[in-house]
Design brief:
about 40% helix, alpha+beta, 3 domains, Elongation Factor Tu (Ef-tu), domain 3, about 425 residues, 25 strands
């Protein structure tokens, strides 16, 4: 009886230990299931994407430059950098005080030249009138001398000779007076022409100064945002964007206004992906500063050859341009982002996060979360994206782990 009693106690102890072991294993499994991150497999259209990094650029941009042939330009006002502007809005103003002073001087010179011309014209009229009177008197003397010569038959020979001499002298005086009148006319005309040229020159200078004064305010050639360019007057190392107080040389590029309606993403496409991309494919653009929104676009241009980048070490990539179909007012040229080129579509595909796919003995597998345990399931990969994978072999809404259970357990040990 004592032996049987001891044997029963041993069997009970073993059963209790086995029960405790099973319960402990279930508790550990449940605890493990609660700590491992899982995701649900979804079913729907799967987009096969090629992702590439890039930045936004404006296909159309107009430069704002300082006026040409306008000296002494100093900036006194600028529209805020990056602010939206409308077409014909003022964006840059220069100091007009020097131009106004020059305009006053040029207008005074014009009035003086006009007064000199009026005086010369009046004097030429007086001289011409005097010459006409003198010429008329000389003609009268010639006619009178001719009349005296006509009376030679009834006067003495001496008187006739004297009349002929008087006629010759009168004709010579008439010729001299005509030449003198012609000389005075040509001289007055030359002086008046010279004064007219001076007057016209002064008038042109006034018009030029007025035109320069009208260029002291630059207006936006189109609607967009104002971006100022660096001022290299102090050297390349000290170049900074133009600001109020800067002296500007004629024709200097001050800034540019990109057309926000022509924004497009310029992506850097790797050589391995170039053969799968073609012009016209649909693109989804993402901007780093607006991660919550996807912008639909379409690939419009691909570079035929690789282009070298400016990063180090230098790389060569193809460049693709995707024009945004619905630009956002918050977007700006130069923003970094990415574009996902839609290569193909798989309808009714089961997709999982890329982190949920593992490799076991050289084959792709997933770990399905079951009550108290994890089930290894071999799958077939249909397509891969940077963030998700299309697979076959698991039903939709299956919960797959994002961490390999064996690895997690080993790390805990």
């Amino acid at each position: 009886m004592r032996f049987r009693w001891k044997w029963g106690i041993g069997i009970a102890a073993l059963a209790l230990a086995a029960f405790g072991g099973v319960m402990g294993w279930r508790a550990r499994a449940a605890r493990a299931e609660g700590t491992l991150a899982t995701a649900e497999a979804r079913k729907g259209e799967f987009l096969v994407l090629i992702r590439c990094r890039g930045e936004l650029k404006a296909r159309r941009s107009v430069q704002v430059s300082a006026p040409v042939n306008v000296p002494e330009l100093r900036i006194v006002w600028l529209a805020p950098s990056g602010s939206p502007v409308r077409e014909a809005d003022p964006v840059v103003r220069f100091d007009p005080s020097s131009a106004r002073q020059q305009l006053a001087e040029k207008e005074a010179a014009l009035k003086q030249a006009q007064a000199a011309l009026d005086q010369a014209t009046a004097e030429a009229g007086i001289v011409a009138e005097q010459d006409r009177r003198s010429l008329a008197e000389a003609r009268y003397q010639v006619e009178r001398a001719r009349l005296e010569v006509s009376l030679t038959e009834i006067v003495s020979a001496l008187k006739a000779a004297e009349s002929k001499i008087d006629l010759s002298v009168a004709e010579r005086r008439l010729s001299a007076q005509a030449a003198n009148a012609k000389l005075g006319e040509v001289s007055s005309a030359a002086r008046i022409a010279s004064l007219k040229r001076q007057r016209d020159k002064a008038r042109d200078e006034v018009e030029l100064t007025k035109e320069r004064l009208s260029k002291m305010e630059l207006k936006a050639p189109l609607s967009g945002i104002m971006i100022y360019l660096p001022n290299y007057s102090q050297g390349w190392m000290n170049a900074k964007p133009f600001k109020v107080g800067d002296q500007v040389w004629p024709g200097a590029p001050l800034g540019e206004i990109p057309d926000l309606a022509t924004l497009e993403m310029e992506g850097r496409i790797e050589e391995i992906d170039r053969g799968r991309i073609a012009v016209g494919q649909q693109v989804r653009v993402r901007v780093d500063s607006l991660p919550e929104k996807n912008f639909p676009a379409r690939l419009g241009q691909l570079s035929p050859m690789t282009l070298m980048g400016f990063e180090w070490p230098p790389t060569r990539t193809f460049r693709g341009l995707a024009a945004l179909e619905q630009p956002d007012a918050r977007l700006r040229p130069g923003m970094n982002g990415s574009m996902d080129v839609v290569v193909s579509r798989i309808p009714n595909a089961v997709s999982i996060p890329a982190k949920a796919l593992f490799t076991l003995r050289g084959k792709p597998v997933v770990y399905l979360a079951r009550p108290g345990r994890y089930e290894t399931r071999e799958v077939k990969v249909l397509a891969r994206n940077p963030d998700e994978v299309a697979v076959e072999g698991i039903p939709e809404k299956s919960k797959v782990t994002l961490v390999e259970p064996e690895t997690r357990e080993r790390s805990r040990i």
